Amino acid sequence: MRYWTRYSLLLLLIFTKPAAGNAQQQAYPLSLDELFRLGTENSLRLQASRMQEAIAGEEEKTARTLQLPDISVGATTGYIGQSTIFRQGLSKPTHPDMPDWSHNYNVEVAQPLYQGGKIRNTIRRATLQRQVASLSTAGDQADVKLSLLRQYMDLFALYKETEVLARNIEESDRRLADIRRMWKEGIVTRNDEIRSELQLTNDQLALREANDNISIVSQQLDIVLGLDESLLIRPDTTLLAASTSLSSCEAYIQQAYSNYPGLQIARYNTRLAENDIRLSRADYLPSLSIHAGNTLSRPLTSTMEDMFANNWNVALSLSYNLSSLYRNKHKMQEARQYVSLRHNAEEQMMQQIRVNVRTAYIRHQEAIDRVKALTLSVSQAEENYRIVNNRYLNQLSILTDLLDASSVRLNAELQLTTAQSEAVYTYYQLMHACGNL
């Protein structure tokens, strides 16, 4: 008896130590809205997406500069070698006087007037790419939120598990005290006491594991959310009580057709391919631009006198690339094939959306039904445990029946907790599939 008493005290010290360690950590209540806010602000993946979006924005601004004139300024200076003039065939060479240095300063401006729509469609392409980058960021943000929610609901389930296990341990302690009293009175055998102590040990081990898992998941979320790693996150317990009304599956599919970032990206890619056709067609058209320039130079090119001369000019330039008539033909066919390919990808995405939304819809309904069924199971398991416990205390059943009833009740409560968190998660999975997360 003394051995088992010392053994129980040792187990109590061992298994309550992690709980004390958790108690030393500062609790940090975290709502779902704050989870999403901190997650999107501190996610490295989203930071990379925002960088890509910023790069696409700069590329659009660069494309718009094609509408502006090209301006160049130049200056040239150099040594002029002595020229030789032959007055009669290659005989009688003379060396006229001329300056030794030349200077040339010029300013030129070229403004494109018409290039077959190439500039306009280049800008349009850059704009579409920026919009695709923005949609990619929105899609990544939804993925990050869903990933954070998975850990958040796992943490919620772990807290509920510790509550259930703590209550079960408390009842096991009371049961063990009753069994020891009954053993002293000779009502039960020593085997009942040993089995009760083993059951208590298993519950304490499970409680420690749950507490350790809480610390691990909390640290993971702390790092992702940019919080102090020592904080022990506590999820919002009112989340399960929030009621959500479901629309029809077809209504969610229509929402996904309008909001899902992946489908919108596919549509923009189709528009990009159509824009590439217009860019290829622009090669068949002529280019028109206006040029203006001013040049200040010395010496005079006609007489080589050491004097400055200033000249300016304005001109229209019209050009047409005849080689485009045979070189651009296959490029146009390639662009048309890309449009067909993008339309095909868009249709595939719509098919996949129907599958994903319907799957998420069914899984959420299944999760709701599981919560209802397990709620009834918990009540039944609780009643069964109460009956078996009373029968055991009256020596109408054996300890095995009582431990089995306790195990059934514990499993039913843990399954209900898991089902409740899964119901919340499947709802947000449905919102993610619809593009509403």
From TrEMBL:
Q: Does the keyword Cytoplasm apply?
A: no
Where is the protein found, in the record's own terms?
A: Cell outer membrane
Q: Which UniProt keywords apply?
A: Cell outer membrane, Membrane, Signal, Transmembrane, Transmembrane beta strand, Transport
Q: What are the annotated GO cellular component locations?
A: cell outer membrane; efflux pump complex
Against Pfam families, the record matches this protein to: OEP
Chief place where the protein resides: membrane
Alphabetically, the GO molecular function entries are: efflux transmembrane transporter activity; porin activity
Q: Which InterPro entries did the record assign?
A: OMP_efflux (IPR003423), TolC-like (IPR051906)
Answer yes or no on keyword Zinc.
Answer: no
Identify the stretch annotated as signal peptide in this record.
1-23
Similarity-based family: Belongs to the outer membrane factor (OMF) (TC 1.B.17) family.
Name of the protein described by the UniProt record:
TolC family protein
Source organism of the structure: Parabacteroides acidifaciens
